[in-house]
Amino acid sequence: MFGRLAAKQVPNKEYAVVPGKVNPDLQRERKKCTFDTLELTHFLDGGVEKYKDRKERENFFLSDPELMDDVPPELMSHEDQYRNGLKKACYLFKKLKELRENGGTIDNYRQLLGGSLGSAILKDGNPLALHYVMFIPTLMGQGTPDQCAYWIEKAWDCRVIGTYAQTELGHGTFIRGLETTATYNPKTQQFFLNSPTLTSYKWWPGGLGQTANYAVVVAQLYTKGECHGIHPFIVQLRDEKTHRPMPGVIVGEIGPKLGMNATNNGFLAFKQVPIPRNQMLMKNAQVLPDGTYVKSPSNKLTYGTMMFVRVVIVQDMASYLAKAVTIAVRYSAVRRQSEMVPGQSEPQIMDYLTQMYKLFPYIATVYALKFSAQWLWNMYNDVTAKIDAGDLELLPELHSIACCLKAVSTADTATAIETCRLSCGGHGYMACSNLPTTYGNVTAASTYEGENTVMLLQTARALMKAYAKAQAGEQLSPTVEYLNRNRKFRPWSNTVDSIVEGFKQIAAGKVAACALSLQRGVESGLSSEEAWNRASVQLVDAAEAHCRAFITDRHLDMVRNGMNELSPALREVMAQLCDLYCVFWALKRTGDFLQFCGIRGEDVQNLQDYQNELLVQIRPNAVGLVDSFDLRDEIIGSALGSYDGQVYERLLQSAMLSPLNAKPVHDSYGASLSALLRAKY
Ligand SMILES: CC(C)(COP(=O)(O)OP(=O)(O)OC[C@H]1O[C@@H](n2cnc3c(N)ncnc32)[C@H](O)[C@@H]1OP(=O)(O)O)[C@@H](O)C(=O)NCCC(=O)NCCSC(=O)CCCC(=O)O
Ligand SMILES: Cc1cc2nc3c(=O)[nH]c(=O)nc-3n(C[C@H](O)[C@H](O)[C@H](O)COP(=O)(O)OP(=O)(O)OC[C@H]3O[C@@H](n4cnc5c(N)ncnc54)[C@H](O)[C@@H]3O)c2cc1C
């Protein structure tokens, strides 16, 4: 991946990367592993068949030189990043079409867009991502059968390229406050799209800048002089032949960002742009030819695509984290620094307990997130099937758990990747470590698809309702069953079961405390909204605690009940990781455990000892564990994390790619430095 150019330029030949040569420390680590890494890889893939499929798919894409970069994107201008990203994205989707003709599914597309395969090919974003992540899913989820028949085929074949244009300059979170209007005229049977203010400019949609020629635009629907709230419309933005913006369409790109610089995020405004009536997506609500409005069974169904993407994000976070932690663990096995015992040779940095503490809980987090994501994906599929059959009962439950898992998974992963970067010392700061780009991709997810605090407040809202139900002795849905007021909490014992139980007690305690704060607020004369705002720091905290209880419960349940077919050696390691995840978070929340679970100072000390013990137990398997993620070097994309551990050789090689090294004396010497050196002051 570091290009042909480089090999020529490494100053000393003996420091060049040697194919097939593996760092001896990594070799030793691999020998120490106590379990079969291939068995774990198969488990992660969901069986041998799926493993083979993945390998084949990776080979299909990653062995194609057209899809690999000669020059890393970070050395390109903003414009070239887009040019390069689009070229590869177009080529990639041609290949995807081939795959689809051989029976591929939407899953193939998703796998190409998340943290692994897709990020190997399009490291800093994909200008066609929104087409697949949101445009097509919105057509599928919100279109009538006729609309689906007409649009989906075109979209699959990339005869139209779309995006999802919802957020505006003035509003991203509060979508009821969007200002773009779609006004129906029964005489012409058209909607007219208009942007009445600067703050109504659409802002952010991926691929909107110069790529998409269509968009799902979310706008306030007006018919017969009345506003019916936000609805989705298919709007043509650019001419299908010339790609010039359509009359009345103002469109462009928003400029460089912290990351995702090839995604071509754009702005968009309309000056009374007409679209035919049948381009309002009408699966849920409709406007009849005479302008009569027919209501949706629930106005929240318009939010369906966001729900879908939130569910997918949790899976993507596990993939990004697997990549970051692989880089940091392999590097920590190769890197030697300081003297642990004076006079003795420098240890691998992974032998420092503090380093183990930085990394191993995040190996465990990959599993914790993966198991929760799997559960959420299954629930999403069950609930959407029920909704299609007219049963909306489980929608609030799905919304509530998707919101908090989206928030907690993105926030935890961003922290984890930054910790991985720091754990690599100075070299982690290099772009060629791939940790900065990976962080840039992941931290964006804390904001997009529902800002994290806002998402946690949505969960808190559901928790408050569940608490009221619990108090009234009503039946509770499974994820909040622990709020049941007749439930007997088990007393503390120094076990992982007790920790998982403890998280439920903490969540229940925090939920009850929030309810009390809200009640007190109202009793003191505040309106319910003011009381809500006054309690919102606590409410966010309660939602996070609820989510942690869910994640630990899922993780333990998988280790206890979902791994029966695994060998005892592997099961033991999986149990250690689950215990570590639970203990790590218990210690981060010691105050909560003291407050809500009746533990004592000596119990905290026991937890601390147990955490240390687990870190030491996991140490010999650390490299084996990250090897089991089975991420190809093209996916890792890092000088620090490749399978062979030729870290220093790759750092030097990648430095040689800098255009500043092309000539012995850079042009800027003549342009400015020489004058400074000769000046007499
Ligand atoms: C924050 C809310 C949820 C607030 O909505 P609201 O209509 O003002 O609601 P409210 O009066 O507070 O009442 C909430 C009520 O609406 C329900 N609800 C909210 N969302 C959903 C849902 N998805 N499914 C099912 N139910 C939903 C809630 O449960 C509440 O129900 P309740 O009143 O308690 O019975 C909403 O506005 C929202 O979702 N904002 C976030 C916007 C967002 O996610 N934008 C994404 C843009 S696309 C993007 O970022 C793409 C990036 C992708 C990439 O680059 O890869
Ligand atoms: C990389 C990237 C890609 C994106 N892609 C798309 C896309 O393709 N299509 C699209 O339509 N949009 C897209 N977005 C927009 C994204 O969905 C919004 O940025 C997001 O929903 C947050 O909205 P906002 O920016 O208005 O933040 P704001 O809502 O203004 O948030 C700012 C602060 O206000 C706080 N806040 C807001 N409301 C509340 C509240 N009710 N209670 C408490 N605190 C509150 C937040 O917690 C936050 O701290 C993208 C954004 C990014 C960063």
Automatic annotation (TrEMBL):
<feature type="domain" description="Acyl-CoA oxidase C-alpha1">
    <location>
        <begin position="303"/>
        <end position="464"/>
    </location>
</feature>
<dbReference type="GO" id="GO:0005777">
    <property type="term" value="C:peroxisome"/>
</dbReference>
<dbReference type="InterPro" id="IPR046373">
    <property type="entry name" value="Acyl-CoA_Oxase/DH_mid-dom_sf"/>
</dbReference>
<dbReference type="InterPro" id="IPR036250">
    <property type="entry name" value="AcylCo_DH-like_C"/>
</dbReference>
<dbReference type="GO" id="GO:0005504">
    <property type="term" value="F:fatty acid binding"/>
</dbReference>
<dbReference type="GO" id="GO:0055088">
    <property type="term" value="P:lipid homeostasis"/>
</dbReference>
<dbReference type="InterPro" id="IPR029320">
    <property type="entry name" value="Acyl-CoA_ox_N"/>
</dbReference>
<dbReference type="Pfam" id="PF01756">
    <property type="entry name" value="ACOX"/>
</dbReference>
<feature type="binding site">
    <location>
        <position position="206"/>
    </location>
    <ligand>
        <name>FAD</name>
    </ligand>
</feature>
<dbReference type="Pfam" id="PF14749">
    <property type="entry name" value="Acyl-CoA_ox_N"/>
</dbReference>
<protein>
    <recommendedName>
        <fullName>Acyl-coenzyme A oxidase</fullName>
    </recommendedName>
</protein>
<feature type="domain" description="Acyl-CoA oxidase C-terminal">
    <location>
        <begin position="496"/>
        <end position="677"/>
    </location>
</feature>
<comment type="pathway">
    <text>Lipid metabolism; peroxisomal fatty acid beta-oxidation.</text>
</comment>
<keyword id="KW-0276">Fatty acid metabolism</keyword>
<keyword id="KW-0274">FAD</keyword>
<keyword id="KW-0560">Oxidoreductase</keyword>
<feature type="domain" description="Acyl-coenzyme A oxidase N-terminal">
    <location>
        <begin position="36"/>
        <end position="161"/>
    </location>
</feature>
<dbReference type="GO" id="GO:0071949">
    <property type="term" value="F:FAD binding"/>
</dbReference>
<dbReference type="GO" id="GO:0033540">
    <property type="term" value="P:fatty acid beta-oxidation using acyl-CoA oxidase"/>
</dbReference>
<dbReference type="InterPro" id="IPR012258">
    <property type="entry name" value="Acyl-CoA_oxidase"/>
</dbReference>
<dbReference type="InterPro" id="IPR009100">
    <property type="entry name" value="AcylCoA_DH/oxidase_NM_dom_sf"/>
</dbReference>
<feature type="active site" description="Proton acceptor">
    <location>
        <position position="449"/>
    </location>
</feature>
<feature type="binding site">
    <location>
        <position position="167"/>
    </location>
    <ligand>
        <name>FAD</name>
    </ligand>
</feature>
<comment type="similarity">
    <text>Belongs to the acyl-CoA oxidase family.</text>
</comment>
<dbReference type="InterPro" id="IPR037069">
    <property type="entry name" value="AcylCoA_DH/ox_N_sf"/>
</dbReference>
<keyword id="KW-0443">Lipid metabolism</keyword>
<dbReference type="InterPro" id="IPR002655">
    <property type="entry name" value="Acyl-CoA_oxidase_C"/>
</dbReference>
<keyword id="KW-0285">Flavoprotein</keyword>
<keyword id="KW-0576">Peroxisome</keyword>
<dbReference type="Pfam" id="PF22924">
    <property type="entry name" value="ACOX_C_alpha1"/>
</dbReference>
<dbReference type="InterPro" id="IPR055060">
    <property type="entry name" value="ACOX_C_alpha1"/>
</dbReference>
<dbReference type="GO" id="GO:0003997">
    <property type="term" value="F:acyl-CoA oxidase activity"/>
</dbReference>
